[in-house]
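Re: Re: ligand-bound prediction request (bumping)

Still looking for help on this. To restate: I need the protein modeled with alpha-D-galactopyranose bound, output as structure tokens. Inputs repeated here so nobody has to scroll up.
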Amino acid sequence: MNQQQTLTELFEKTFGHQPTHYFQAPGRVNLIGEHTDYNDGFVLPCAIDYQAMIATSPRDDQKVVATAHSYDGQVSEFELSLPVSHSEEAFWSNYVRGVATVLMEKGMSLKGVNIAIIGNVPQGAGLSSSACLEVVTGLTLTRMSGLDVSLKELALIGQKAENEFVGCKCGIMDQMISACGKEDHAMLLDCRSLDTRLVPIPQNAAVVIINSNVKRGLVDSEYNTRRAQCEAAAQHFGVKALRDITLDQLEASQSELDELTYRRARHVVTENDRTLAAAEALARGDLKAMGRLMAESHISMRDDFEITVPAIDGIVDIVKAVIGSEGGVRMTGGGFGGCVVALIPEEKVDAVKQAVHEHYPTYSNGLVADIYVCRASQGAGEL
Ligand code: GLA
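Reply:
Sorry for the wait, this slipped through. Here it is.
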């Protein structure tokens, strides 16, 4: 049974009738540009062919009644006409509750719906399982209420729900690529203006994601600490965000900053430059240049931003030994575990899989990696 059939079965079992509409929003992998989004900088992600999907039907009342396949069909409901509270027992529903709250705060009048949710983006792996749930929820609630809200606006609404309702101070990258991704393309996103430029992924290149399966500990606190360090550095220079600083400016002021703040800022400033260069390299199909930039990005995350872990560094070394200069590999996502992304010639995929299976156990304390060969996919939409 495919994902949509399983979803339909859950919907019918829960609500006793057929859904009227289906919506989906994909997860994402970031090729380069890490921890730059909340510094108003640049990122280069693509949407992947793993997604959150919702089956829905209208209701006669003002309730949202939701059920989730990943949580054994647990049901959680709330009233749109009353202030929406957090749920302790159904944590997943807080993404739905948060998005509904932000939409209504913006003055939108929502109609009651039944919704069933399914997803195949691995949770807690740094592939944006939360962001795609926010985006698909926003799409469902607005479209079922007859509201034509743009995908960009839905991305911002999802981020606001996560920042204010769920409590994670994420940037805008994940929701934007889930909402606005394009098949076979990566998206260069200016996180200040939200301008986008689509960059085709070269035809012979495979996007390979290797999930270390290292449980991401302390993610939220470490993430928020990095964010605060970046803000402190920007404040030192009297600018809105680190996006506004050049490497020359940063180096000229090195003695005024403490060593840690300097290194954190150096990661962001150099990563922005690398991301712009990577978009150019990808556009001309130059996998070698892309490989160099991804390697530098990984070293910068490891040594300056300090968000990698030994198992992740191990995977990067294993893959690099196979691909040499023919493509790139780096940690992707927020850090402290999660996934590695490789952009490699298709004919290297089998050798990379083989090498990871053979050598990863040396670094991983017995953990086994999951490998996904992905296709850059279309962003959110109705099915
Ligand atoms: C997480 C956040 C994003 C971004 C990345 C790091 O995925 O949700 O906004 O900051 O980390 O690049």
